[in-house]
Structures are given as C-alpha cells and as structure tokens.
Amino acid sequence: MTARRTLRSAAAIVVVAATVLLLGVAPTPAPIPDDPADPVRASEYWLDGARIREAWQTTRGKGVTIAVIDTGIGKVPSVFGDAVVGGTDVSGSGTPDGRTPLGAVDGNHGSWVASLAAGRGAPDGTGMIGVAPEANLLSISVGFSAAAAVPFTEQVAKGMRWAVDNGADIINLSFTTNTLDWDKSWDDAFLYAFEHDVVVVVAAGNRGSGTNIIGAPATIPGVLTVGGVDQTGMASIEASTQGITIGISAPSEGLIGVSADGTVVPWRGTSGAAPIVAGVAALIRSAHPDIKAIDVINRIIKTAIPVPDAVKPQDPLYGYGLVDAAAAISANLPAVSENPMGDLAEWIRVFRRAETEPQPVPTVTPVAVPPLPAPDAPTEAGSPLLPSADSLRYGTLPLIALTVPGILVALGVTAAARRIRSARISVRHTPDSEE
C-alpha cells in the first residue's frame, strides 16, 4: 500500500469512527444538489444509465485524485473551483501549472474530459456535474500537435511519472496514436504507474477520426480501455472503435463538456467515455479506501451490464459490458492477484527480448588441417628458342614417337606398290617362248 493510500484510509477510518460514536449509525452522505429540471443536468443521461446517481448515495469520490493528461484544464471557477489541486506542463509550450489550454483545435479537450470526470456543478444543483464531483484533479498539459516542442511520446512518459509522484490514484488518457505498438519509453512509464498502484484508464479511439481499430496506449497490457456506446447502449459507429483489449464500455455519444471559457458544449467520442469510467474508478476507491488498483479494474469489468449477443466474456466492441457504478461499489467480490487486463511486465519480458541479458556465445573447437605438400622448386628460365625438358617430354618426343612409325609405314606401302606395278609391267612385255 502506498503512503498516500495509507493516509487516505486512516482519514476515512477516523471520519467513520467519529460519526458512529456521535450518531450510533453508519454515515450517509448528505443529499447532493441535483436539479433534474435543469436542462444541462437533465442532458447527462449517463448519470442514471450508468447508475451514477445511485452510487452517489454511498460516495462522490472524496479523497481520490484523478490525473488528466490532456490539453490542460481551464480555470472555470464554477466547475473546477477547488477541484484542481496541482498540475504541470510537459509539452514545453504551456504554463507551469498545466492550466493553459494547448492547441488551436484541441485546446478545450482537457476541460471537457475533466468536467465529465469530476466537474463540481453549481451549488443550486444546476449546470454540468462530473461522475465523481468530490474527487480532486491534476492537470498535466500536453501538446498533440506535431509541431510540439517536446516529442509526444516523451511528453506522455514524463506526464505519467509526474502524475504518480504527485498523488494520482487514477490517470485518464483520452487519446490514441493510431498504431498498435508504442515507444519503448512508455514501458517504464506505465510500469511505474502500475507498480505504484495507480489505475490507468484509456480511450479506445473513434472511427470518425480515422481509428478503425484501437491503438496505443489502449493496447498496453494492464490499462482499462474504454469503448463507446450510444444513448441506447449500442456500440457507437463513429464515436468508438473496436479491439480485443477493450475492457468496458461507457457513453460516447450525446455528451456535453465544459470548455475552458465556461461554455457547455456538445461533443462525442471515447475521449468522453474514458473520464466517465475514470470517475467510476474514483467512486470505488473512495468507497473502499484500501482497495488495490487491480481490484478496482476487476470490480468495473465483473459488475458490467451484459450486452445481448455480445461475445463472452470480452467482446471487441463492448469489452465485458456497460459500466455500472452502483454495482461496482456495492458488489462483494474477492480480491484478485493479477491485473485482469494483462501484465505489462510479462509482455516486456516476452516481446522486448533484445533488452534481456545476452545469451552465452557457443564455443567452437578448431579443426586441425594437415599442411599442404611443399611446391616444386622453381627452375631457371631458359631461352624461349631452345627446347625445355617439359617441351621435349610432352611435345617433341611424343611427336617423334607418332611420326616415325607413320613415315615407315608410308614408305613400306609405297615400296610395295612399286613392286606390284613393276611385276605387272614385266608380265605385260615378256615374249612367248614358243611360236
């Protein structure tokens, strides 16, 4: 158990004990200001659909810190007044507190995400309220643009470590890289979070923005990847994607968020589904101060609302089902010994083999090769006009041996032919001895 978790648990125990001693009953949270007639509050359909209002009867996330690694959480007093307890900039372009929105296009993204996770809402029960309205926030600003002063992979790795070192219980990452693999620097950064008992919640990505299948960091073992559904609980076509690492689903369509200037705007995407789940994780950690990160994840996926016709147990569109905040808090589940979403350390051991200890070099026994025979001693060079021993041996002598018999045979044949011709002439010219 980390030091911050020990302190949080001790504080919770003191509060509970004091309440029991004074009242003789278990504490019940005071009613939260909530005006269902307010059009903004009424549009937050996920508060009932994911049974978040019911979970508020037990906790609102007090004592838990959610780190939002995004484009910065704007300074909107009515929504983030006392919620943001710290921040930093890792982009090289923001302000030291991480509260200055970064990016001409995405500048409000971080504020939208934070408002869904832990927006405070107005004291009269109107205006937007987050899933864990009493949780704390850390604002870690990053630059999504390719022109950022610091490489994006380096920003994320640095942001993860800063979040852990500054008390984050949950880290929300509402972005994707559109690639299955990730930079090696993320191995250590995400391991650092897991080893410090931090829940990491990641958006699955959206088809509407070109993500057909999930990409890193949603592919990193151990993170809780969130897919998106519409208002009816069906997988979103444009505002979500698919992949075998999706663990849970939450609303990603018809969402609202508070911009950095305080304006409430509609938006959609798993960038919004992820902070809803991060808020649920905060409710769980607040209700169960001693719970480990792996058990938070296990509660969320094991108590999910099943989706008809979805692949069991883990569907590439819905994961284990739709998030159910009330069930995740109240369920009686045994502790687990492993992260149900995978083991990053084991993945590194298997797939980063190049980083392991070098294998021993096999020894080779040398083979003895007998020496070649000594070459013939060189002879003195003679005149090219005089025959050499080799020319006599391989040229002149064989030529004589073949030529002389041939000449003798030819002479013998010629002599024989002359004798025959002479004999014929003699016979032709000899006179008869008788008349």
TrEMBL record:
InterPro entries: Peptidase_S8/S53_dom, Peptidase_S8/S53_dom_sf, Peptidase_S8_His-AS, Peptidase_S8_Ser-AS, Peptidase_S8_subtilisin-like, Peptidase_S8_subtilisin-rel. It comes from the Bacteria. GO terms for molecular function: serine-type endopeptidase activity. Residues 1-30 form the signal peptide. One of its GO terms (biological process) is proteolysis. The active site is at D70 (charge relay system), H109 (charge relay system), S271 (charge relay system). Keywords: Hydrolase, Membrane, Protease, Serine protease, Signal, Transmembrane, Transmembrane helix. Residues 61-321 form the Peptidase S8/S53 domain. The chain crosses the membrane at residues 397-417. Belongs to the peptidase S8 family. This is S8 family serine peptidase. It comes from Microbacterium maritypicum (Microbacterium liquefaciens).
